[in-house]
Amino acid sequence: MCRKRQIMSETKDKIVALADRLVRTKGFNAFSYKDISAPLEIKNAAIHYHFPAKADLGVEVVDQEMAKFHTQTSRWKNLPENEQLEKLTEVFRRHSKEGNICLMGSLAPDFETLEPAMQAKVQEMAGSIVNWLTQCLEQGRKKKLIHFKGTAHARALIIISNLQASLLLSRVMGPSAFRLIAEQLMDDLRHK
Amino acid sequence: MCRKRQIMSETKDKIVALADRLVRTKGFNAFSYKDISAPLEIKNAAIHYHFPAKADLGVEVVDQEMAKFHTQTSRWKNLPENEQLEKLTEVFRRHSKEGNICLMGSLAPDFETLEPAMQAKVQEMAGSIVNWLTQCLEQGRKKKLIHFKGTAHARALIIISNLQASLLLSRVMGPSAFRLIAEQLMDDLRHK
DNA sequence: AAATATACTTACTTAGTAGTAAGTAAACAA
DNA sequence: TTGTTTACTTACTACTAAGTAAGTATATTT
Predict the structure, then answer these.
(1) Is the pLDDT confidence value at B2 over 60?
(2) CATH number at residue B79
(3) Residue B108 touches chain A, beta carbons under 8 Å
(4) CB of B74 under 7 A from strand D?
(5) What are the C-alpha distances in Å from A129 to residues A25, A103, A117, A140, A146?
(6) Residue A123 lies in a domain
(7) Is A48 part of any domain?
(8) Tens digits of residue pLDDT in B68-101
(9) In a domain, A166, yes or no
(10) Which residues 21-40 of chain A have a CB within 8 Å of chain B?
(11) B18 occurs within a structural domain
(12) B83 CB within 8 Å of a chain A CB
């Protein structure tokens, strides 16, 4: 009758991974603890053991996403800026293929309904991404690898909102939407 | 003890108007009948009288939005295409000021959780907007009022996803995000 | 070997949620 | 004036949500 227990809690990692997927597919408010406990074959109290409140789970999901972003971008650090942008697009392309939307695209609509701690995390994440992209565009333009009009900051906002929304549009209009947007976006930056 | 009853149901209109606002501010799954019944000082059964299921209310909200879109665009029909685009941006600017996000931006993340009837409505809406914008861009380029690279369809997808996501980003990063994106976007189309 | 910490489960509470069946007051039509 | 439709309210159901208190088996430390 004895169910096996995980050593050093793989369970916690599985909960976060599944929560990440649920946030992207159903939205933070729309998924429930049952959506996690049922497939992992644990009780919902087990989730509360690791994450006392749902917001704690949400914060962890965002934290892990940010950590992933930082390790990825620092891995690209020595690439030419136009290739770094391709890498970024590649990340979104993968999400597109898996039917995921990005965390920002999922959490921003529900922003007002989130707890202050989660709101702060989401703002932090948005800031990090926009700052990185702004730097990347600025450096790339200096080296004449990338061409665009206006400030790097405004262009960064445009690009990130495009990638974000293209995943949303793809969900409604099919995967061709992402492809068309991403290709045109990269092409825009290639030429003067 | 007798509460007054509305003649010819202003109530129904009020329900839809409030639901529209709630979808944009909290999301379709995150708002409840209480969010409508409390401020309107009616019982939740009154909402069910007009809209048997929540999906019926959602469909009505999307329908009214599409009707509004059609009347607006047909009012601009005889304007030069670049001005029509300014008008479209103006619509989004107003939403930005009121802290609203657009219906697509709100419903697309929850798309998988919506009933088939609502999914179809959202797809219809996306199609309408993209088609109109594609036509507008194509005509505008022919008359040399608008300049852009690539196909009108790809450019339409880029612009609509920008406007959509700029409202999402604004919610997280503050209203300057919308301003910067909208200005740069319009500037991009003005020059060769 | 005993005490303690870890990682859960069992069983429950509280507070919602959408939705419904039956009743009612007013407006309208015959 | 009677019957019917409209626009609700009252009072409820069935269900699901997040969250909690207390118990338990295993692993780790002393």
Answers:
(1) no
(2) 1.10.357.10
(3) yes
(4) no
(5) 21, 12, 19, 16, 18
(6) yes
(7) no
(8) 999 999 999 999 999 999 999 999 999 999 989 9
(9) yes
(10) 25-27, 29-30
(11) no
(12) no
